[in-house]
Amino acid sequence: MDELRTTKLHAWHLQQGANMARFGGYDMPLWYPAGVKAEHLAVIEAAGIFDTSHMAVIGLQGEGARDLLQYCFSKDLQRCLGSGKIPLVAGRCVYGVFLADDGTVIDDAIVFQLAADAYMVVVNAGMGGIVAAHLEGQRGERSVAVSDYSDLVGKMDIQGPQAARIMRKILKEPDEVFAGMVYFSCKGGFAELQYPGSVQLLDGTPLLISRTGYTGEFGFELFVAGEHLVHLWQAVLAAGDGFGLLSCGLAARDSLRAGAVLPLSHQDIGPWKFTHNPWQFALPWQEGGTFSKDFLGASALLADSSAEYTRAFAGFDPRKITTGKDTFVTDLRGDTIGQVLTCATDMAIDRVGEKIISVATPAVEGRPEEFKPRGLCCGFVKVRSPLAAGEILLIADGRRKIKVEIREDIRPHRSARRPLTAML
Amino acid sequence: MKELSELDFPETVHYTEDHEWAALDGETVRIGVSDYAQDQLGDIVYVEMPDIGDMFEKGDEFGTLESVKAVSELFMPMGGEIVAVNDALVDNPDLINQDPYGTWIIEIRATDNSEFDDLMNAEDYIEMLRG
């Protein structure tokens, strides 16, 4: 096993008494003494911060950068923003995947356009070198410099409805920073990635702030030079005093993203074709079942005849199964039809009659006055038939069988897309 | 995760290698999980318990604890019949996290009370945890 890596916040995590575990080659906090349920709920009802500096950052610079991304990244950068499908511009970012020629997933990513010929690509832990080498290998004659900045970057996320109110206390000229800051936009820069329109903390520390995240809730991802991360973390924590802010570990991150129907790369998407899954918005589909651009892996996806379907599910109580290779999915007759990719418990939701209700569900939408959710197991299965929402199946780990329902969506009333002006 | 020195291991109960505790209470035995177990598991979100009247041998699985991290089996420290289950855990499974020794999971009528003496005392259990 490779040497266990640590982030700049490692000593802080240990000092807080976090329960640590290996993830993506890093020793990371699973939860802090407050416990994962409190952390999960804090992100939905107040705010939580996550050390995400295990994630990898790649820079692309040069007049060939956009063309290289057009060929390697699944989103059509000329047709991706908003309902009008306008081109990606500086200050905006998009989610997509990097595919191999056979249509299987190398990694998922958010591509940030920072300036005319400058892009930042954020991929998963341990994937910086691999994705950078892949891009370099596909570069051809294009004029573009690909740089892996992963070891230079400090990254943390602040997620939850109080995130903007907390950040407002520590940003220099926050009103200017927040102006026009729509979902999936970014401002500022840091370290090697400095462009006009800087964003700074009150003490002058430069950062890049983006309205993105991995929880389904309103909030920001914050990028600074690695040496500023502990300082940024402490500043956010101090500003969060009185707002219910909690530091959160990977367990809450996993349960929040599962309830928000977001995939974990190398678990829910991976070395199989990126088709028949809930994340088709990552592909440049256009009318007629074709793609609006050609890109690496496209022809393999269009020619795909595999009959494997990834579907989201939710259970009827918090019980889950232990994921791994020994899991299986059966129909109600008992015939095995697939396997379980993710199984987590979203502790903010429960079933009320036929509906799933969240602690964030407004009373008028059906949240009972005394609502104390027990949590529901949820996640993703990969099955051999195109199950529709509402279908019931059983997930099993050899020890236990649990009834679950195929769902289009899981945790209702998520805050990720609320206008920033409504969150101040 | 806490250091062993921060965890509580009362001498009034006996322990198993699977981190259950058992407490003799007159005719019956109450069973729960240790402070070490709840700390390792993290927030417990669901407790699966047996039915009253069920009979188990020592070492049999009698239920599960569902934490956010994983599902863990619960094993009988002693053989016997289930005479009560802690219904408070249905709505508040996290009572185990808050008070692992005040929160029993099942109460049994042991087949053989001498099995209690085969279990580890606090000192031996801590020794085992130290490895």
Query: Low-confidence spans of chain A: pLDDT under 50, at least 5 residues?
Result: none
Class from helix and strand fractions of chain A: alpha+beta
* Strand-residue proportion of chain B: 25-35%
Helix and strand string of chain B, N-terminal first? EEEHEEEEEHHEHH
Beta-strand residue percentage of chain A = 25-35%
Main sheet: strands, sense, barrel of chain A: 7 strands, mixed
Question: Taking strands numbered 1, 2, ... along the chain, how are they ordered across the largest sheet of chain B?
Answer: 1-2-3-9-8-5
Biggest β-sheet of chain B, characterized? 6 strands, antiparallel
Radius of gyration of chain A: 21 Å
Spatial extent as radius of gyration of chain B: 14 Å
Can you walk through the features of this model?
The complex is a heterodimer of chains A (424) and B (131). Chain A contains nine helices and 24 strands. Chain A is of the alpha+beta class and 424 residues long. In chain A, the strands form six sheets. In chain A, strands 3, 9, 10, 11, 12, 13 and 14 form a seven-stranded mixed β-sheet that branches. Chain A has a six-stranded antiparallel β-barrel with strand order 17-22-19-18-23-24. In chain A, strand 5 (93-99) and strand 6 (105-115) form a beta hairpin. By secondary structure, chain B is of the alpha+beta class. In chain B, strand 6 and strand 7 (71-75) form a beta hairpin. Chain B starts with 13 loop residues before the first strand and ends with a helix.
Q: What characteristics describe this protein?
A:
heterodimer; A: 424 residues; alpha+beta; seven-stranded mixed β-sheet; six-stranded antiparallel β-barrel; 9 helices; 31% strand; B: 131 residues; six-stranded antiparallel β-sheet; three-stranded antiparallel β-sheet; 5 helices; globular
